[in-house]
Amino acid sequence: MALAQVERVRKMLADRHPQVSVEVVSMTTSGDRWQGRLADLGGKGAFTKEVDAALLAGDVDVVVHCVKDVPGDRPTPAGTVMAAYLRRDDVRDCLVHPAGTRVEELPPGARIGTSAVRRVAQLALHWPELTPVPIRGNANTRLAKLDAGEYDALMLAVSGLGRIGQPHRITQMFDVDVMVPAVGSGTLVLQCREDDVEIRDLVATLGDDAARRETLAERTMLHILQGSCDSPIGGYARTEPDGRISLRARVASLDGKTVLDVHEWATDPTTLGTSVAAALMRQGALDLLR
Hints:
Strand content: 15-25%
Helix content: 25-40%
Cofactor: dipyrromethane
Strand order of the largest sheet: 5-4-6-3-7
Subunit structure: Monomer.
Protein name: Hydroxymethylbilane synthase
Family: Belongs to the HMBS family.
CATH topology of the largest domain: D-Maltodextrin-Binding Protein, domain 2
Number of domains: 3
Distance between the termini: 32 Å
Pfam family, one: Porphobil_deamC
CATH architecture of the largest domain: 3-Layer(aba) Sandwich
């Protein structure tokens, strides 16, 4: 999936700036190699620390991240900047079942492959009779495990399946009211060195301001809650026709029995994210996240 994401950026640069030469540098991170619980490896930073180091060392000039894989409980590494947020893809979660069976038709005890605690909590909320089973690996690896019979169905991101050319595997998409998406779902961000003005200006031409503002609202909320890869937090911001931003957020216990929901609107993304985080904390989110 990472190479598909980089190819998207390469094509955008080629289309808009044909005079620019682009070399793709493939990297494998500790998060890619690790097959255990991500929290045991230090969380989402396992996907970013090595590429951050390569960027700061000058080995690469631009890094492509999925926003949802960028840690929300720590600042952007010193000396780097998130220079452009690309236009957002579909934010929804989906079910993949080999025979096309929908989630409400699955038998009790059906094994659902997902390691995201946000999905585990919301599965327990809506379909407590199903059994979430941890799974690691990229989307292609997970699909192969499903096809081998290791799982009865998978929960995956719609955008991820689209990026690897497998949207036909989707059985059912979930509305954002049912499965509140992960913060940063469907969004790619381009990271550069802070002092590399030429590259920053070039990359900035690819950015989408609505995606930037929506991401800022979501990640402000996540940062205030100190959310990590082990936090059952969902958040989805959307730009409304009147220019305001709406932010829907959910914090849920892993058994789905305690659910905190907030939905607010504002014109300033930082103000919105702060207000939503405060509303969740008034409901007891910090106790639920401990």
